[in-house]
Amino acid sequence: MKTLIRIVLKSAWHRRISLLFTILSIAISVCLLLGVDKIRKEAKSSFINTISQTDLIVGARGGPVNLLLYSVFRIGNATNNVTWESYEEIVALDEIAWSIPISLGDSHRGFRVMGTNTDYFEYYQYGQSQRLTFAEGIPFSEVYHAVIGRDVADALDYQLGDEIIVAHGLVSAEFAEHDDKPFTVTGVLAKTGTPVDRTVHVSLEGIEAIHVDWQGGTRSAFQLSAEQARNVDLQPKAITAFMVGLDNRINTFRLQRAITEYNEEPLMAIIPGATLAELWQTIVVFEQVLLVISGFVLIAGLLGMLTMLLSTLNERRREMAVLRAVGAHPYHILFLFVLETVFIVFLGYVIGMCLLYSLLVLTQPLLVAWYGINITITRPDAQQWFLFAVVLLLSVIVSLIPGLIAYRQSLQDGLAVKV
Amino acid sequence: MSATPIIHLKEIRFRWPGQSADFLYIPELIVNKGEHLFIQGPSGSGKTTLLNLLTGINVPRSGSVMILDTPLEKLTNIGRDRFRADHLGVIFQQFNLLPYLSLVENVQLPCGFSRRKRANAGDMDATALRLLTHLSIPDALLDQPVSKLSVGQQQRTAVARALIGNPEIVIADEPTSALDSDNRDRFLELLFQEAEEQESTLIFVSHDRQIAERFTQMVDLTMINQAEVAE
Ligand SMILES: Nc1ncnc2c1ncn2[C@@H]1O[C@H](COP(=O)(O)OP(=O)(O)O)[C@@H](O)[C@H]1O
Ligand SMILES: [Mg+2]
After folding, report:
1. Over 90: is that where the pLDDT of A79 sits?
2. What residue ranges define each of the domains in chain B, with the CATH number in brackets?
3. Domain map of chain A by residue range?
């Protein structure tokens, strides 16, 4: 046994160049497979963790996924608004513990601007029931104050006290800027790993103020200065959506139905968890395709190894005859191949894992900075260890092919190898 | 009779898979202790086939292969391999050495498969070095890769490997056919010297009649093979 292991190692070392490439190809395919799996899990958890503890999101009637996308992920637009009266009427219901109004539509240098009130900082939760916290500063307390997410602060290098100019609509354009009414940064939120990081938060009154002298998409001839706008009635006439927390979860479905059947205007309420799951189902197909592709890449790697092993069979016949002559059993020959293959795959797998972890460590800050995806580096989970075991088992099965051929050859050849 | 048979073949019949008639039929062949057997015969006459039977790599269809009072045909496959590992040393015509092992490791290889040889060899490093020195392998070559050795040196190293652990029988299949006459004589000289010292019986196959005179016993395979259709 010890002799065989030594023979395997020395023989492998002798052929190290070709083995190195085989090991590398397995390492890369393992890295790819585990990487896709990792990103898949991270994406799912970061996705599911975007919002927490909110029981219902209410918006104008339309697609539930669309409502979720614009209210939580800041993707896309609402087709209609919710009137302030409806909002006030609904949140006055007994079952409702808290609510957060949301007013969207403007942007600042590529980041969405969201009008809300200070309840947002108190009640909004993400991840495992985590609340928003301030990295610096305080919530907005007046019309021209703004609180920015961590990514906004980092990307635009904003400090407390800096002035920012909100653009009308979602594309930044010179002529459509509310440049007469700048906002002052009063707070920067701590990193959440959610779209909150990429949002500029202002008060509903702020949103109202910058739009008082606008009609439709253009500035009206009748302009008001920032100071003048303060004195106008800044009570919003409509908001985009609102989030609701209930005293008792049991009432969720009843309230959802009540809102859907609301008479004054066509509204819709979604349960974030359910709609998230629905949305995830559409993404999951893509993700599974990726996973299957990486699985095939790994199989290609194993087949490459098989090709390599088969191609060396002939030139190793003499080696086998020598081993047979000194007393090796054909089982030993078979075992030699199994051991070598498991050794190659084991090394390949371990190198692949190391490769993945180094890649994760290197790219983690970049992924957070560029995409707001925060990848947590964790130890391989049970599923990944299981995959390790499966791949090793596969390698044993693969090794049986050249192993059994060599076994049969060594039985046939005996002492004479005719090459 | 003082001589004890170390090898005793009786009524053995052998054919390769797919052959319809016996390829070898040897009514009797006896080698006594202390003797060295030279087997000669033209190429293709079945010399290597006979050695495969003697080493237990192949088994005859019928008959008895008695080696050191052990009937090989009665052993299991694993038993025969173990028997070969313990009691036999083998030298091929060429390419005896594993290129990825050092000279010393090549010589020690049989000890990895046989506890008996390991015990007989004692201090394995010292024994391997002693054998290599006796077989006039220059010290400077000891830590060189096998590929740096001349064919003659490789064959002599193969002798050292066949002899380590004092096997009772050393089987050599045309070990000199790749050597020029000077190297051949040197090889035979050293082979005999070491085999005598260890009291190993040599079974030596060659088609080269010149070598035969050194041996106490000689058979021509075409003579002892009574199979009707000898290819
Ligand atoms: N592994 C084998 N399988 C089938 N036939 C074999 C095998 N080895 C040898 N033979 C046949 O046995 C015959 C004798 O071969 P061999 O014993 O090698 O002769 P020699 O060693 O005297 O040159 C050849 O005709 C060859 O075709
Ligand atoms: Mg031959």
Report:
1. no
2. 35-59+82-224 (3.40.50.300)
3. 2-47+282-413, 56-270
Q: Determine phi and psi for B31, rounding to 5 degrees.
A: -120, 125
- Residue pair A184/A161 in contact (Cβ under 8 Å)? The answer is yes
Q: Which residues line ligand 1 (CB under 6 A)?
A: A 412-414, 416; B 16, 41, 43-49, 231
The predicted model gives A134-159 an average pLDDT of: 92
Q: Nearest Cβ partner of A414 from B58, B85, B109?
A: B58
A247-258 pLDDT per residue, tens: 998 999 999 999
Measured distance CA(B114)–CA(A329) in Å, rounded:
12
Return d(Cα B47, Cα B171) in angstroms, integer. Answer: 12
Mean pLDDT of A195-218: 84
Cβ distance A147 to A189 under 8 Å?
A: yes
Distances (CA, A) of B224 to A346, B9, B57, B231: 54, 11, 21, 14
Per the structure block, which two tokens stand in for B178? 């790749």
**pLDDT higher than threshold 70 for residue A332:** yes
Residue the block writes with tokens 């390991």: B118
Q: Write the residue in A13, A323, A414 that is nearest to B52 by C-beta.
A: A414
Q: How far is the CA of B192 from the centre of ligand 1 (A)?
A: 28
- Which tokens in the block code for residue A23? 């090991």
Alpha-carbon distance of A176 to B196, in angstroms, equals 107
CA A283 – ligand 1 centroid, Å: 65
